Structures are given as C-alpha cells and as structure tokens.
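notes to self, project folder thing:

trying the whole complex as one job this time. last attempt i did each chain seperately and stitching them together was a nightmare. three parts in total, labels are on each line so i dont mix them up again. if this works i'll redo the older ones the same way
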Amino acid sequence: MEISFTLNGERVVVTVDPSDRLLDTLRESLGLKGTKEGCGEGECGACTVIFDGLPVNSCLIPTYQSRGHVVETIESVSPDELTALHSSGATQCGACSPGVVMTALWVRRNPELLSTHNLREVMAGNLCRCTGYDGIIDGLKGWLDEDGGRRGGGPAAETETRRVSP
Amino acid sequence: MGALVVGAGWGMKTLSARRLVGRHMRPHLSAQQSATGRSGLGRPYVYCRAVPGDTHCKNQAIPFRTEAGGRVKRVEGLSKLTGRERFVDDLPMDGALWGGTVRSPAPRGRIREVRFGAGVNWSEFVIVDHRDIPGLNAVLLIENDQPVLASTQVRHLHEPVVLLAHPSRHEIRRALQQIEIVVDPEAPVLDFRETPSPDQIQYGTDNVLKHLRTEKGEVERVLADAPIVVEGVYETGSQEHLYLETQGMVAWMEEGVITVSGSMQCPYYVLDALRCALGREANLIRVIQAATGGGFGGKEEYPSGLAIHAALLAMKAGQAVKLVYDRVEDMAVTTKRHPSQVKHRTGLDRHGHLIAQDVEILMDGGAYVTLSPVVLSRGLIHAAGPYHCENVRIDGRAMLTNSPPFGAFRGFGAPQTQFAVERHMDRIATELQIDPVELRRRNLIRDGQTTATGQVIEDGVDRVALMDQALEMSGYRVRQRENAEFNRSNLGRQRGIGLATFFHGAGFTGAGEVHLGSVVHVAGLPDGRVEIRASNVEMGQGALTVFTQIAADRLGYPPSQVLVAPADTHRVPDSGPTVASRTAMIVGHLVEEACDDLRRRLGVDGDCEAKGLSQAIGSWHEANHEGGLLGEARYKEPPHIHWDEDTYRGDAYGAFGWGTYIADVEVDLRTFVTTVRDFVATQEVGRVLNDVLASGQIQGGVVQALGWALMEECKWRDGAMDNSQLTNYVIPTSCDVPPIRVDFQEVPYPHGAQGAKGIGELPFDGVAPAVANAIAEAVGCDPCEIPLTPERLMDLMGER
Amino acid sequence: MSILLPETISEACHLLATHHGAIPVAGGTDLFVHWPQKIEDRGKTFLDLSGIEELKGHRWTGDELILGALSTFWDIIKDLRAQIELPLLLGAARQVGAIQIQTRGTWAGNIMNASPAADGVAVLMAYDAVVRLQSQAGTEEIPLSEFYLGYKAMRRDPGQVLTEIRVPRRGYDFQMFEKVGARAAQAITKVGVAVTRRGEEWRVVANSVAPTVCRCPTLESFLATGQPVRGPHDLVVPLRDDVAPIDDIRSTARYRETVLARLLYFGLRDECPCFA
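result (full assembly):
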C-alpha cells in the first residue's frame, strides 16, 4: 500500500507492506539509519521517534498507522543543539543515544512535564547500559538550563546530582 | 612531608585538604620514603596538574600540555548523539543476503539427522554445515574444543549446527522454523556444583575445565591453631551483558580477500579465528571493526565464531552476507557472566587480624573451555580481597556444564570472588562483634605487604585513607545513626548502609602482556597531522578520545590534529585485545612511546612545539616519496614484574586499582524490594585521564553491577537462558538507581599512559558486596547469594 | 498480513462481520511486540481502529468518564480532572511501560490483551468500569469484572468491537493501587492490587495472581465484616479463596501470595480499625 506522512518536516510517500514496522520503513525503505533497534519489544527505547509530538517506540508501530501523521527522527536534530549532552558524557557506546536524544528533545520542548515528572521518570523508557544514567540526566538538565537561562528561570530538575569534575 | 602543596587553581591547599570536588592527588611517596628506595616502581614523583599560576609544583611529572587535557570531549560523541555513527546493522549492504543460524534443540546428544521441511524451496537458500569448513572446525581460543558448527554431537542448547542465507530476512526466519535437528539425547550436566556421574563426563576425567591453586604460608597449621575461624559459602548468579547493540557481522569477498566487519572488541582475535577455521593466510583475511554498541566482554570472544559463520556463508554464496542477531537470539545464545560458588574458611586472631584464608572457588564454565581458565585465574587472584594475610590458599575449578559457554564479562571473575570475600568480611565482623570498617582498617594491605600471590604492593596508595574518604563522603557514621533512628520508627521500611573495599589488577595477568607483545604505530601524515594505529576499539569506553588526548599531549598537538585509524587489520598493527582494563594504561602508554619514536625518527627533540613537529613531518614526506613515516612502540615488560605461571605466585599485575564503595539502601518490608538511596564510589586508578569519561566508566560500571546485585537473573531451561527478552530479564532504568557519586584519588602509575591505571572493570567489583552488606545491616539477615531479588530476600528473611 | 482500515464504528462492525476473526488493533503496543518473529501472526487479518475519529480521546459526562477505545494512558496522565477524581487511573497509567508506551497504549487495548498483569484493568475494575461492545447486531454493556472467562478468554463475540469504557464518577472513602514489578519503572506487574471503598462496599482487584485480573470477593466481604486482622497472614486465608498465584518466569507463587497480603495489610492498616 502507498502511504504518505510528514517526516522531519517533509511529506514522504512510501510503499509499504501492511506488516512493515515504522522502524524498518525508516531504516530500510527511507535509509534513515539513525533510529536503532535495541529489542523489538518496546522496552529499550533505542527506536524512539516523535510521533505527532509524542515519543513512541517505532518498533511497535505498523507503518501504515503513520499515514497522515507527523514523524520526527534523530536525523532532524542538529549536532549544534547537543552541546550539553555531549559535554556531560550522555553518550558512550552510542546505541541508545538517538533514542535518548529524541526523548530528551521532547522533554525540552515540553518543560511543563517537569511539574509532574522528574527527569529520571521521563527517561525511564530509554535503557542505557553504559552511562549509569548520570551523564544522560545531567546532560538533559544542562540542555534544559540552556533554555532556562534564556527564559530567565530554569525548569525544575533533579537537584541531587553531583558532578565529579570541577 | 615535603612538596605537598599543589594546584592553587583547584582551590586546594595541601593534600590533606578534604575535598577536591571528587579528585584527590596524592604524593606517591614522601621524599623521605622514596630516598630509602622502598619503591619497586622507580623513583616516585608527586603529580600535579599544570594550572595557570601554579608555582608550587616542584617535582612535576607529566603535565597535560594541551589546554584541553582532561576536558577533551568524546571525539565521536556528536556522531553518536545524532545517530550518524554506523553500526554493523547500519552499513550499506545493497544486495547482501541475510544469514540465519539453525541451532541445537537439546543440551547434549548425538546429531542423528538434519531434516529440511517440505514447505520451503531450499534451492533459494545458501546452506552451510560443518562440511563446508575449509580449515579446522574450531573457534580458535585457549583450547580448540568449541566447534564452529556442530558435526556429530551437540553440547549445549542453541549450539550452531547449520547456517542459512537468503535475500529476505523474513524468509530466513520462516525457514529456520522448518529445519529440525534430530538429536539422540545424552545425560547433560546442568548444575556446576554437583559432582558429575560417569555418563556425564565430557572433558578429561572429571569435567574440570581448569584447576588453579596459589598458596603462601601454612594455611592448615594456622587454621588449626586459630582462636577464631569463620566459614561461609557464597554464590553469584549469571548476568547477560546486554550491550544495547546486538551481535552482528557482515562478510564479503574483495579481490580474493575475505573481509568481515562487525561489532567486536578484538579484531585480531577474529582474524586469528578466521585464519584457523578457513585455513587461509592472514593476508587473505581482513577484519574491520564497525562502531560497537557496547561490549563489556560480551564482544571479546563471541564475535570470532560469528565472523566465521558470516564468512562461510559469504564464501559459499559468492555474495555479501549479513548476520545480525535480534535481541532474543542474542540473549539466548551468547556468553554470560560465570556463575560461581566460593567457600571461605578464615582464621583470625582475637584482634580481628586475618591470619589464614582458605578459599575454594567453583565456576560454571559452560560447554567448552573458551575463556574460563583465565576468568578463573583472575577470580582466584582477587579472591582473598585487598587484605594482608600471611597464610593464604586459594583453590579454583572451572567446571563443564551443558550450558552455552560462559565468557568474558567486565571484572572477569573478580566480581564473583570479591562478592564472596567482602560479604565474608562482614560476616566476620558480626561474629567478632567488630565494626566492619574497623575490621577492614586492621587488614587492608599496606605498602610493603603482599597479596595472596605474594606480590609486594608498594604503589604509594593509602588504602585506609581511600576508605576514610568514602566514609566521609557518604556520611557513613551519620547515616548509620539516622538509619537506626529511622528503623525504630518505621515498621514497613528498614534502612542500612554497607561498604566494600576491593581491588582490580589492570592489564593481562602475569606474563600475559609479554605474550601479547602489543605494537602501536603513530604515523606522520603528509599534511603534518598524525594518525594513531592500534587494534584497540572504541566500544563506548572512550578509547578514541583517550588515545587522541594522549598523543596530543605527548606531541603538543591540538586534539584536532590527531587522527585515530579505524581498527582494520589491513591498517593497524596488533596492539592486543580491548579487554582487561588495558587500553588506556598499556596501549595508551605505547601510544606515548610511539609518539616519542616518531620524534626520534625525525630527529626532533621533545621541546619542539607542534608547529615545528608538523613541519618536520611535512618535510619528511617531501623528501621521502616512498613509504610511510611511522613511530613504533612495542610492549616491554616493566622491570618489576615477576610471575611464576607454575606456582601461580608473583606479580600478577603491573598495577592494581583500589576502591571503597558504600551503599545506603532501604528495604520495603511489604515487597522485599531494595532501593539504593545513595551510592558513593571512591577509587584510586592512577591518573584520571579524562574526568567525564572516567566518571562515566565508574557510574556505568556501578549501575551494571547494581543490576547484577539486585535484579538481573537468568532463568535457565535445559542449561540456556529462558528469559531471553527484555521484558523478562530486566536491567536498571534511570528510576532504579540514585546518582552515583564518584570520587577519585590519584597516584600516578609510572608505566601507564600519563600515569593511568586500568579503570573499566574495577567499578564492577565493589558494588554487589556493598549493597548486600547494606541489606544485611538493614534487615539483620546474612545474604550469601545474589541477585538479591525480592523473592530471594523474602525467603531469606522468612515470615515476619 | 492484511489490514482493514475502517473510518467509522459501523464500518468496523461491518468489516468484522465479513472478515471473521479479524483482530482489532489500537495502539499496537502489545500486538507488535517481537513482530518480526511472529511468523504466524503475519498471515492474519487485522482491523485497524486508529483511523476512527469517534473512538479517540475521552470525555466527562455528569456521572461518567467515558474512555474511547483509542484513549491512551497519556490522555489520562495529562488530564487534571482524572488526577483528582480517579487517581488510581493516573497511578496505573504512569506505571504502564514507560512514556513511549503510555503515549500509544490504550485502555481498551489493555483490556483486550487480557493479560493478568494489566495495570489498567485492575484500576478500572476497582472503579466498577463497564465495557461497551458493538457489532452489527447492536451494542452490549458488560461490567469489566464479569468480562473475563479465563486466561485470555473474554465475553466478546468475534464480531464485536470494544468502543468505549464507562467509568462511574462517584466519591470514594478510600482508594489505593500498588504495583510490584521487577524494577522501579517499566516493569510487568509481578503482583499488584487496586482497592476502593465506598461506605461498607469494598472492591479489591488483584493482578498477576490468577489467570485474569480478578476481583477478590471473599476478601471484600471479609473486610466489610470488620474481622480482626493481627498481621498480613490473616489476610492470606480469605485471599486463597480468591486468587491462585503460580510460579513463572517472573516470580513465585509464594512471593505473590505473601506480598499481596502484605500490600493489603500495610495499605489498609490505617484505614481499618480492626487491623492490628
């Protein structure tokens, strides 16, 4: 079947089998290899993309369900935005990183979330085996602080994290 | 004590100052001590970081010359964060076939028949079995007993028997269900602790894959006379590495060269294994590491067999083949941490000094020898803990069972044996009614004393001070009081704080590094930049960044002028495997020496600044149109290392890292769930090369070990992992762990890069015992087995 | 795999009538787990509900919260009124998977997947929710507590589609939901319990201790009669009439039984004067 949806701001038309997962369509049919498969069961979050403004696991979405919808992938993110995550050690092996960044990007766009959720809860859908999460949480906090600085008031963030480096 | 004042820029007056935001520099030895020549490590020095305006540093060792120094950001970091890094599954492989693996349905037996089902057009498939192996049907390792593909018998569930390739991955999955391996079953061994019956013997006369023993003093005599003897039996479970990127390999022929690329830690292990199984000359094989999404040991030996599989398929197909495991297959079939049982019998005097340690180790090796002898070895060497005791005997056996072989995993046996000894120390403290801290204070090894293998420790590290630092940082005494108060007023929740003191040897054991004989090249490129050529891979730990930083510092180059060559056996020499916490310390040191050699070849002295060096490299290329400009370094054993492989005595490692970890936990008495409220990780790892990377190694290691301690449990069926799904084998999420508070003390190691020692494995060793000791204090039980899942803790505590 | 894409409920009912055994799909967070390995499922016919506007979101009427079949956990997490009026829904929703699941997973899918571990089902049942099923033959309403017949078995005709879940709006004197998974977030429930009380009327609903999420009628009447409870063990006896936990890959029968009793004991101790 032929479907179209908005991918990273552009309309794409793609022919898919009803059984194709969005993850595979992105990676194989559209060549966007940034989104990773970690488990295929919606546990690890490595395949996180933003779907109509919300983070989802693209391994659990049949592609046809994205017809007419808006999908954003890691390919839409500029490295220039990621200084805070880079500096904090948010990535080590890199396999979870695209998913981590997509969830973090969503949190950054929706800082009001942090009035009900703490940073560790919002990141709980992205498993990381390398960092122990401190680098990720600190990086996200730093990314949010960048905005807070501009807006003249930082969002609520984890207060107990302590960095090692001076 | 002289020369104690260091970097004012760090806001620190003297070395006795309490906190340095997580980093402490210590004098190696005082000037007076060093004058007596006690150090076996050459003349000690006081390290300090060069900081602007620092005029106090009299005896400066290796300053960071680049401004960036410890602040070089991960060089491939943005590429990873933006998803541009190419892992094996991301490589463009147009027209490649997909591979699949048909596996044994039984834990042990004779293969009677392979049945190909009628519902599949098999002519569309490339099919490979053991008869297609041109060389030896073995995955080259310590012993060549593990077949590439089973031929007549199988020794574990999921053992590879037949390989398939087809253009459609879906068709491969369908076809895999249509092949039946018919096996006449034989009696499997499914519990490594039980003595095998005669019909279960599959290795030697007793299924012992390896037996090791080290002994000093007179253990039996001292134990017989000891006023106090404390015994204990401790068990640890297996663990899946759960690197986020699964195992995968692609293979293709390129001008007569079989080329494989994939996720791996050790390109030359893969090369050697291909050479052996394919019966090919090494120059007709090329191994290229693709970006590797985590290893933790899981991609040390396992990728060798996978690479052979991919290569066999590609050679038979005459086409590229891609063999990438999905998560379920990866978890079910690949290596895991060795389960262990450790027995302690310890003699003490009335003051709580260790006078004899008798330790027996049993490890589950799985169905083939693979790396079990060396995992056992490292477990054995660390089994007595970081303590001084004159009489020590450690006896270890790795046993065959019909499980998929257990393999390398961060810590390599040492976490298992140090869980045992550190839990045992707390049991001793309870029996003697001594404070666990005090017991350790009395027994921690002092400079000049020896380890279990008789290695004299004289590295200038004050292990008691390290422990004290952890106690202070965690607020240990205050927490103890607060917890006691809390426990009195809360029936449903109980809190406790516990610690572990531990150590980890860096690099290969004994003469291992000599046997490896690692080589590193640093090439001067025509444009004046340099390129580091080493076979050690980036797998998340930061090798690329640390190598870049080391070379930049050594040459006075900005990091941007330093390249690191891809780990491609056609491009880089064999600098050994990326294992054993050796990359920064040993290979990094070779990078330094290769940089020096490059200067030497150019006739440029050490004072020559970057610009001069860069010009000299350019001029060399103008004058020499042929060949390349290479600085080379080859491993040379530091003079102080003496190891006797036969008696298992001597200097087991060039250097040890040391640590004290403290966990503060709360046990929910409704659910028996343990929550770690605070975790302090204090360690000495020589010089810290990069703050962010180093603390990331510690935090990641701690959290991985928290999983092992509390929640990660392999459930077995016929010897193999049954819960091979991420829903059923759970690892910590961000909500399951507190921020890990990291603290370094630094005593530079003269034979490591810039004074660094190994760091990757150390953090794994102290976590489980600290947590278990904390739980013991919280609920007044004596846990001897991990993981301490709520179910296990409930059974341990009984009905209350 | 073939897929049917209705745009209205009546179209969906028609398609279900003509494609016998077609499997309704909402968010897909259960159905598509390990999808590439589900060779057999890929030969089946699916009825995708995601394009039916009528099924989206939830709405509040004077006496009910009505969850459309496509209403997600995230919809409720974001609704302040749900937090205030029906806090157990929020409590369960926030503990289903992680946010990536909460944004796609639906309450209706949670019911239709029929897992004994379903957190959403437990709290809906404790609130006396009713499911509304529609087919070409008409509509039918069934109390959720009567919907399950056995493991993965439901009172749903293959021609019926679940269109909405109706949750009564009324005050409670007491309500709690406790979930125990293998970790703090993103875990399948090993044992869980939802409890509500209005006057003397108790609802106790347990997860993962029976072939289905289940009400515990014996315990409910035990609590209503106000018998003395000296410790968790006193709750085990009535619970044994209601639940039948088993050993499986995620936990043990003993743990499930013990912890269920302890969750109830510690949770109700301050609520029930008869608890020691």
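what i see at first glance: The interface with chain A takes residues 1-3, 5, 25, 27-29, 32-37, 42, 46, 48, 50, 74, 77, 94, 97-101, 103-104, 184-186 of chain C (CB under 8 Å).
need to look closer tmrw
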